Amino acid sequence: MHIGVLKGNGIGPEITAATQRVLDATGLDIKWEDIPIADEAVTQYGHPLAPEVVRRLREAKRVIKAPLIVNKMQGRITCVQPDGSEATYPSLNNAIRRELGLFVNPRPIRGFRDVSGPFAELDIVVMREITEDVYIGLEHRIGEHAAEAIKLTTREAAVRVARYSFEYARERGRRRVSCLHKANVLNYTDGLFLRCFREVADEYPDIESDDMMIDAACYAVVRDPRRFDVVVAANQYGDIFSDLAAGLVGSLGLAPGANIGPTAAVFEASHGAAPDIAGKGIANPLALVLSGAELLATSGHPAKAARVREAVRTVIETRTALTPDLGGDATTEQLTDAVINAME
Ligand code: NAI
């Protein structure tokens, strides 16, 4: 099995090493290919996401990606296209997703007994659309004291993410898909997103569907986390709602994710590069480990994926070796050892 690796920065290299150890411990013969990104790619290829890097990512097809630090207010990046034209993206993370044609970011978030308190039964998959919305980065200044951004919504992208969500729900035995939006204010953009969702929902009479305003949904998930099952949302709402859900279950370090496209998939945690704890050896690697489990599940190894997930659950619920974000004092390495022991 061939897996591309983007080690990222901040806590990236620490949690990547942990994830590679756990996936190797499943007994699969994995050929890891380190692919340079950001500064490393600049050194090697002269650009943080050089065409050569994009080509290697496309060829790898399945990639484990650790978080990347993106500088606030100056993260824009321009990539040369095969036809010589240029595309500018708001950040390196956004550029990777869009250069690879990745369109949905499923973020499964589950509570754990004894760690997640009243949210132990939370079990939500956030399906975040990742090609459009305000994150396309089409913004500009209007003089010195004003600026505006475009929020893009198209039928094609809204239908595609809705269909993916219902198919996912059907395949994984999920009962309901909820659309989160603000169509009472954003009549045209979120209105279109919601209309497309409803059209697709009609094709899946076996799956319940409903919708909720994003602000009401934030309130509802705190009050009654079991209210939600699969939720589908535009880029920004999905980004924020999934971090909220991760906070409710106890840590961003428990929220895995993937970026899925027609020909490639990049598996990454929901969290960022956590520069505040980088290099201290105390980062929680579980979100990336669980992202790796999802990679196995979608690559023909569901039993091995289940083994990793079960081991993670055992370690957390028995509080065997928890990192400080989960109230323990274990190191990244001790937590990783505990997961590997639990698998064995
Ligand atoms: P963050 O998610 O990196 O950190 C938020 C808080 O959660 C921090 O206190 C951090 O210590 C904690 N945390 C996050 N992951 C953790 C883990 N695995 N174990 C233990 N604690 C963890 O968000 P922040 O601080 O807003 O962003 C830091 C950098 O990461 C920024 O440059 C941002 O642009 C980047 N970022 C990158 C992402 C990506 O590569 N996909 C996603 C989000 C942010």
Provide a descriptive summary of the structure in words.
It contains eleven helices and 14 strands. With 344 residues, the protein is an alpha/beta fold. The protein folds into two domains: 191 residues, Isopropylmalate Dehydrogenase; 134 residues, Isopropylmalate Dehydrogenase. Strands 2-1-3-14-13 form a five-stranded mixed beta sheet, sandwiched between helices. A hairpin with a 4-residue loop joins strand 13 and strand 14. The longest helix has 17 residues. The protein is globular, with a radius of gyration of 20 Å. Bound molecules: 1,4-dihydronicotinamide adenine dinucleotide (NAI).
Q: What is the topology?
A:
Layout: E1 2-6, H1 12-24, E2 31-34, H2 39-45, H3 51-60, E3 62-65, E4 77-80, E5 86-89, H4 92-99, E6 104-110, E7 123-129, E8 139-141, E9 147-149, H5 155-171, E10 176-181, H6 189-201, E11 208-213, H7 214-223, E12 230-233, H8 235-249, E13 258-260, E14 265-267, H9 286-297, H10 302-317, H11 332-343
Parallel strand pairs: 1-2, 1-3, 3-14, 7-12, 10-11, 10-12
Antiparallel strand pairs: 4-5, 6-7, 8-9, 13-14
Helix pairs in contact: 1-9, 1-11, 5-6, 7-8, 9-10, 10-11
